[in-house]
């Protein structure tokens, strides 16, 4: 396979982007895992109990899970995983000395290191400060993988390139930006029926940053797996309606499936901020007009060759448990309504409205220019400012841009993960509330949701919160993404899932 965005670390505590998560998922395991239907299922924890008050989680561990063999273990043989390994691994995420990007998982949920307890070798307990109905799903994130203390202590920061886990593949070799090799873990504990996993002997990743050349390698069968359809060769593979072109029919397999990711345009709404004070976007009717003025189906057809679903419900994407487009009222394309709202806001056909700047990262310029055209047609003058994604992210995390393109990818399959973006305690720079939406009623519902363990009841609260944000118009959801995965015809057993998590343990290559 090819990892075009490079790889930053193989240490689970720093698995913050897709490539790191993909590779960490091959080398490590956690207490639980998420199946393709987004249910939490056992992994190293075979069973668990949650206390009545939702604060204490007790996990009963398997006793046949071993770390990969390594010269630092006695006799070079990987030792058994015990409960104290999880206590150590979890505390690492909040240990200020480690500086993990996964600190958010526990930082607001536990008091200190004593919240993680090994009752004995096979019983592990986590004590939370407040209930968290999504907690079991959060524990399946790659950050929560188990690592061996003695090896981490030995390598320190270099554990990033000398990873030792319990997963289906063990680390062999990594020359940064050139090649990564993982080998089959011969002693892996998981089975598929009575067959031992994984089926593959090895996994090799290259790091060609140019998608076009990497795609040519896939066509030449030098790669078995390829993901994401890039603009440079999109028309070559997909028709405008998202079907495979006749040129490639039968040459390889292409699957399109739900991916929990919402592409959106955000609008700052806190009028105490200097950039908002004189902006016409401070008026709700202007924001609602913008929401009605974008033809999302046309955008998906012509700019994305049918990849994606028009986001006409809320911010929480299609494919997420509890998603309900009949309850969450978003915006359909309605230029007449958009024009009326603009007039009501005091800007008939955009008259007297100052020009607004829409900020985007360079990769999404075509998408944003389409939106610019739609808004111009309404009479709203828009200037597009394209900058590298790192600098745009920096501006967003300081609330310094008041009209910007963003995307939110699910960390875990629960609507809470999306609605947290509007919770006022998630103020930037420490949280992701990029639109500076602060609403006491919203916060009250958000905090109430912690105490509702019944999913159906909790989803009702989520839908109510999503409707509040939609009505406010601080968020213009453009589309719910879909993943496009291509594999050669001799590859089977690759399971797509809405978290777009790569699972290679069940893959076979004939």
The percentage helix is 25-40%
Distance between the termini: 16 Å
| Rg estimate, integer Å | 24 Å
Strand percentage lies at 15-25%
Task: List segments where confidence is low: pLDDT < 50 over at least 5 consecutive residues.
Answer: none
Structural class: alpha+beta
- Strand tally: 20
Summarize model confidence as the mean pLDDT: 96
Largest sheet: 5 strands, antiparallel
Count of discrete alpha- or pi-helical segments spanning 4 or more residues: 16
Shape: globular
Structure description:
The structure is a single chain. This protein has 510 residues and is of the alpha+beta class. The protein has 16 helices and 20 strands. The strands form 7 sheets. Strands 12, 13, 14, 17 and 18 form a 5-stranded antiparallel sheet that branches. Strand 9 and strand 10 form a beta hairpin. Helix 9 packs antiparallel against helix 11 and helix 15 runs antiparallel to helix 16. 44% of the residues are buried.
Task: Name its key features.
4-stranded antiparallel beta sheet, about 500 residues, globular, 16 helices, alpha+beta, 5-stranded antiparallel beta sheet, 20 strands
Short description:
The protein is an alpha+beta fold and 510 residues long.
Layout of secondary structure:
Blueprint (H helix, E strand, L loop, with lengths): L17 H10 L4 E3 L5 E3 L2 E6 L5 E6 L21 H12 L9 H4 L8 E5 L2 E5 L7 H4 L10 H7 L13 E7 L3 E6 L6 E2 L2 E2 L5 E5 L4 H9 L5 E3 L6 H4 L14 E16 L6 H4 L6 H9 L3 H9 L4 E2 L24 H10 L11 E6 L3 H14 L3 E6 L1 H8 L6 E7 L6 H4 L20 H9 L6 H18 L2 E14 L2 E2 L15 E2 L1
Parallel strand pairs: 15-16
Antiparallel strand pairs: 1-2, 3-4, 4-6, 5-6, 7-8, 8-11, 9-10, 12-18, 13-17, 13-18, 14-18, 19-20
Helix pairs in contact: 9-11, 15-16
């Amino acid at each position: 396979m090819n990892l075009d965005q490079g790889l930053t670390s193989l240490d689970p505590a720093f698995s913050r982007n897709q490539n790191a998560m993909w590779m960490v998922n091959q080398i490590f395991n956690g207490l639980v895992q998420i199946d393709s239907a987004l249910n939490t299922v056992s992994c190293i924890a075979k069973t668990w109990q949650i206390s009545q008050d939702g604060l204490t989680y007790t996990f009963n561990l398997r006793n046949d899970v071993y770390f990969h063999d390594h010269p630092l273990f006695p006799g070079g043989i990987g030792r058994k995983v015990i409960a104290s390994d999880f206590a150590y691994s979890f505390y690492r995420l909040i240990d200020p000395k480690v500086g993990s990007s996964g600190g958010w998982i526990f930082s607001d949920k536990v008091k200190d290191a004593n919240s993680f307890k090994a009752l004995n070798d096979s019983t592990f307990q986590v004590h939370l400060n407040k209930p968290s109905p999504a907690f079991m799903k959060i524990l399946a994130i790659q950050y929560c993988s188990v690592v061996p203390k003695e090896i981490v202590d030995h390598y320190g920061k270099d554990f990033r390139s000398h990873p030792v886990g319990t997963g289906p593949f063990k680390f062999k070799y990594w020359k940064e930006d050139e090649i990564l090799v993982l080998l089959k873990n011969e002693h892996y504990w998981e089975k598929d029926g009575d067959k031992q996993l994984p089926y593959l002997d090895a996994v090799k990743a290259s790091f060609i940053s140019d998608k076009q050349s990497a795609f040519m390698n896939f066509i030449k069968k030098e790669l078995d797996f390829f993901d994401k359809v890039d603009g440079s060769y999109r028309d070559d593979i997909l028709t405008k309606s998202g079907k495979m072109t006749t040129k490639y029919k039968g040459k390889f397999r292409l699957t399109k499936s739900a991916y929990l990711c919402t592409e959106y345009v955000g609008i700052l709404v806190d009028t105490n901020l200097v950039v908002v004070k004189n902006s016409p976007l401070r008026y709700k009717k202007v924001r609602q007009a913008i929401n009605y003025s974008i033809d999302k189906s046309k955008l998906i057809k012509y700019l994305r060759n049918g990849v994606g679903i028009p986001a006409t419900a809320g911010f929480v994407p299609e494919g997420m448990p509890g998603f309900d487009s009949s309850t969450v009222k978003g915006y359909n394309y309605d230029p007449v309504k958009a024009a009326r709202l603009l007039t009501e806001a005091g800007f008939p056909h955009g008259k007297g409205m100052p020009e607004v700047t829409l900020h985007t990262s360079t990769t999404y310029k075509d998408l944003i220019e389409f939106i610019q055209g739609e808004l111009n047609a309404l009479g709203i003058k828009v200037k597009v400012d394209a900058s590298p994604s790192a600098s745009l992210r920096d501006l967003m995390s300081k609330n310094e841009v008041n009209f910007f393109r963003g995307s939110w990818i699910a960390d875990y399959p629960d609507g809470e993960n999306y609605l947290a973006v509007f919770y006022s305690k998630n103020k930037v720079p420490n949280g992701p509330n990029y639109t500076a939406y602060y609403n006491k009623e919203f916060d009250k519902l958000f905090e109430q949701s912690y105490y509702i363990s019944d999913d159906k009841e909790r989803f009702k609260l989520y839908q109510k919160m999503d409707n509040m944000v939609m009505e406010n118009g601080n968020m213009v959801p453009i589309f719910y993404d879909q993943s496009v995965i291509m594999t050669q015809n001799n590859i089977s057993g690759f399971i797509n899932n809405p978290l777009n998590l790569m699972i290679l343990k069940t893959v076979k290559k004939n």
